[in-house]
Amino acid sequence: ARGAGLVATLLDAGAQHHALLQEHGLTKGDCATHYFTDNRVEDLAFRLGSVLLGTVPVTINWQADTPDRIVYKVTVTKSKAMVVDPDVPAEQIQMCKDAVGAGAPLGIIVAADQLAAAWPLPASGFCSGLAPSDPRIIIFTSGTTGTPKGVSLPYRAYDTNRATFEQFLLVPPASAPDAPAADFTAVVTNPMHHTNSTAITDWTLRRRAAPPRLRPHPPHLDTCPRPATPDSHHLPPRTQPPPAAPRPLPPPGAAPA
Predict the structure, then answer these.
(1) At residue 17, what are phi and psi to the nearest 5 degrees?
(2) Nearest one of 73, 93, 75, 78 to 26, comparing CA atoms
(3) Judging by beta carbons within 10 Å of its beta carbon (0-12, 13-18, 19+), is residue 256 exposed, middle or buried?
(4) pLDDT at res. 60
(5) Confidence category of residue 189, pLDDT binned at 50, 70, 90
(6) pLDDT of residue 98
(7) How far apart are CA 58 and CA 147, in angstroms?
(8) Residue 115 neighbours by CB distance under 10 Å
(9) Is 203 helix (H, G, I), strand (E, B) or coil?
């Protein structure tokens, strides 16, 4: 029941995000840059909301992107809005607004504040007719060898990820009659601007009652079995066999064993 409640909460938050993007004039196919300074549940809710509206999130590498690169990503994708958290520097937000210009002003959505005040859009207003070839998200390379290169990943790619994870981990698809309501919890500590994190979070949001848990770094990603009891919060530690005792040296003149 708790897992189902979390999924319902995320769906409500996604519907609120949908309404906020509509208020800023976004429609199907438009881009919105997601600039968060850590793994945040608001980013997850806004990614879900982008599916409901058919808009395309654009990732910011909050670990490495310079202000100029952030402006570049906003302008090259023609983003109509930028979703931020309260820790994003105000001067960087202003740089992006100035770069876009007054002709097509960049909408700024402070996720935690405006999400709480927004009314969820009813399901009748959700986008319909998304095709497998439609873009799901735009992710950029780290840019270590020059200007970051962006790639538009379609819904088809994420459906392939889903099928691969479920086959490899022996998890029944959510649509299968024998699929359990809450069979695992995905723990995501890798930054959510990385491709593997987007794949895991997208997959778990497709399931009925397995909302992902977001953790700070160090960067790694793991999928843990759900604890068998409420008191079993940790997997048992791995144990190593004790080191073997050193063999004693034979006395002088003795024949080797």
Answers:
(1) -60, -40
(2) 78
(3) exposed
(4) 93
(5) confident
(6) 93
(7) 16
(8) 21
(9) helix
* pLDDT given for residue 231 in this prediction: 37
* pLDDT tens by residue, 36-80: 988 888 888 888 888 888 999 999 998 889 999 999 999 999 999
Q: pTM for the complete prediction? A: 0.74
Which amino acid, 5? G
Amino acid at 118: A
Q: What are phi and psi of 108, to 5 degrees?
A: -110, 125
Pairing status of strand 135-140 against strand 150-154: antiparallel
Report d(CA 116, CA 89) in Å as an integer. 21
- Going by C-alpha positions, the residue among 106, 3, 127, 95 that lies closest to residue 58 is 106
Query: Which residue type does 189 have?
Result: T
The two counts, helices (H) then strands (E), for the chain are 7, 9
Nearest alpha carbon to residue 202 among 233, 149, 162, 240 = 162
Cα–Cα distance for residue pair 164/118, rounded to 1 Å? 36
> Residue 123: what pLDDT?
62
One-letter identity of residue 197: S
* Exposed/middle/buried for residue 94 (C-beta within 10 Å: 0-12, 13-18, 19+): exposed
More reliable by pLDDT, 111 or 130: 130
Question: Could you tell me if 110 and 86 are in contact, meaning their C-beta atoms sit under 8 angstroms apart?
Answer: yes
Q: What pLDDT does residue 218 have? A: 47
